[in-house]
Amino acid sequence: MDIDNITTTIGDIILKKYNIKEKVEISLPKDLSHGDYSTNIILKLYSKYKIDREQCFKYIQESLPQYDLEIMNFFINIFIKEESYKNIFNSKESIKKKNEKVLVEYSSPNIAKPFSIGHLTTTIIGDSIYRIYKYLGYNTTNDNHIGDWGVQFGKLIYAIKEWGDINTIEKDPINELNKLYVRFHSEEENNPQSLEKAKEYSKQLADNNKEITDYWEKIVDWSMSEFNKTYSLLDIKFENTYGESFYYKIAQDIINKAIKDKIAVIEDNAVVIYTEKEKKPLIIRKSDNTTLYASHDLATIQYRVQDLKIDTIIYEIGVEQKQYIEQMFKAAKLLNLYNKNTKLILISNGFIRLPGGEKMSTRKGKTIKLNTLIEEARIKTQILLKERNIEDPDIIDKIAIGAIKFNVLKRHYSSDIVFEWDKVLNFEGDTSVYIQYTYVRCLSLLRNITISDSNIILDTNEEKYLLRNIYRFQDYLDLAKLSPNILAEYLLNISRLYNLIYSKHNILKEENIDIKNTRLKITQKTMETIKQGLELLGINTVEKM
RNA sequence: GCUUCUGUAGCUUAAUUGGAUAAAGCAUCAGAUUGCGGAUCUGAAGAGUAUAGGUUCGAAUCCUAUCAGAAGCACCA
Q1: Do A2-80 and A370-537 fold alike per CATH?
Q2: Which of A80, A85, A261, A481 sits between 20 and 30 A of A313, alpha carbons compared?
Q3: Domains of chain A by residue range
């Protein structure tokens, strides 16, 4: 990773020559005629301190002899020397281990609700963020903060007792539980006492009532075993699955301390924290003395910071919770639950809407289940592969699930997605299939070939562009660690460049042995980069398609 | 009503967080093929970023107003 070196070198020389501490920002131009790296530091220094721009450029140039520098419109364009990027064939870049401990919270489904396409964004983007951080050497872990506590269990237990049949439920747990949940909400309108009863059950759950706790355990087990099937299909593994139930006791301690320290006050029998003037306070204990999501989330911060010693917590969560989470962060600060070195990062992703822009709703039963989507994708993939005489179910899965994931990952996390079948299952253009296809092309070219040692000759610009992009892989990852769409775009770009080279030059028929071998090595390097990059998006490569 | 977010080619999205000529894919039109895998490649056409002001050497990005859409608004998560 060159950016770190360039940043500190320039920062140092400015401090030394001008006694100015200025943040140096290095960007990765996509247009390589602006260099492999570029910075506007001279413009910044000039507008603030009126330094001599030519002189400043000279200082910087002298401090970075391993690059070719030019100054244009007072941007400094930094070019990697050809001998440097030629070198990537020989050296394997090592990644420095970092002390920073990072936790990514994502997916976080509610127990007893079907895993719908609405969970796709947080699950897939969160997982990619986790993978990238880990790859970059951060001490990284992940946590599926499942919703396994609260009034919804009272409702479910009420519904099971009234209308449920254990045998029927066990055959198809989530669907049956969801039916019961939907029924509860439609009956609740006619029978207001049902909600009172449900709340009583959830209070009994917090009080460890044996019968109620047994129901709760069953419901959680049924759901988790179904969720785990989905996760294994999506190739997602969680190191931690604490869930809200883990935190309700810690939450009580936090609430008591908050009252004692006069940070929280009691209003209408509930315990609340005022985070800002003129804004509604955050409720951390309900008037029936039970805890709720806000108190669990506060307890979660405390546990992660104090017990797990996490430095950076990344929340991958839907926008509908954004304002609440920000308020909860403020309350956590008032309560001193984290210290100055802790970073709380909120990644709030957009909605997935049904065709026509309608919002999904579990209560009304208006959802598209993830399993349905995966099934459709498989069928489409199967048909296309059959034309090529491939029937391997493993290949079908890797392509189908890759396409589903990529469709989410190629967008910025905050953008809303209107779900349309033909767009999600489109296999042409900006898709994972295009990248996987490029990989297969490379693989197929190198099949039965051994690359002999020879000189590296980069004959054309497109080859240089491709190599220079591959050289910057880690720099791009650093940029992409909170926005995997940057990595997705990067991989598309690498693939486009390779396909251009492939179509322009017949590599195997090339007579100049050095040029031929260089192209084979480029092919090899492209393959490695694509495989690694896709892996960080949670997408697999295939050997044929 | 208050708070927050969004508005970029016909459509779906990018734009390294205030930088260089706003970048791709789909769709449209015109081309490449007995080829190392055409799920490919080349080219054309297509927006000056909802609107009107402002700040700045520089604005899709910041500020103000207006229009349109979405989300959140105390005991659900």
Answers
A1: no
A2: A261
A3: 2-80, 102-171+211-353, 370-537
A102-122 residue pLDDT tens? 999 999 999 988 888 889 999
ipTM summary value: 0.96
Reported as a single tens digit per residue, the pLDDT across A426-462 is: 898 999 999 999 999 999 999 988 888 889 999 899 9
**Strand B interface, A 241-260, C-beta < 7 A:** 244
d(C-alpha A532, C-alpha A541), whole Å: 9
CA of A7 to C1' of B4 (A): 35
Residue type, position A271, single letter: V
Q: Is A335's CB less than 7 Å from nucleic acid strand B?
A: no
The CATH number of the domain covering residues in A370-537: 1.10.730.10
User: Distance between CA A183 and CA A177 in Å, rounded?
Assistant: 10
- Work out the pLDDT band at A423, boundaries 50, 70, 90: confident
Among 1.10.8.50, 3.40.30.10, 3.30.1360.70, 3.40.50.300, name the CATH number for the domain at A2-80.
3.30.1360.70
Pair A338, A305: CB distance under 8 Å:
yes
Tell me how far CA of residue A501 lies from CA of A217, A459, A523, A544, in angstroms: 58, 11, 10, 21
Cβ A424 to strand B below 7 Å: no
Nucleotides of B under 7 A from a protein CB: 3-6, 12-17, 19-20, 23-27, 32, 35-42, 57-58, 70-77
The answer to whether strand B lies under 7 Å from the CB of residue A359 is yes
DSSP letter at A415?
S
Q: Gap from A410 CA to B49 C1', in Å?
A: 21
A466 CA from B27 C1′ (Å): 29
CATH number given to A102-171+211-353: 3.40.50.620
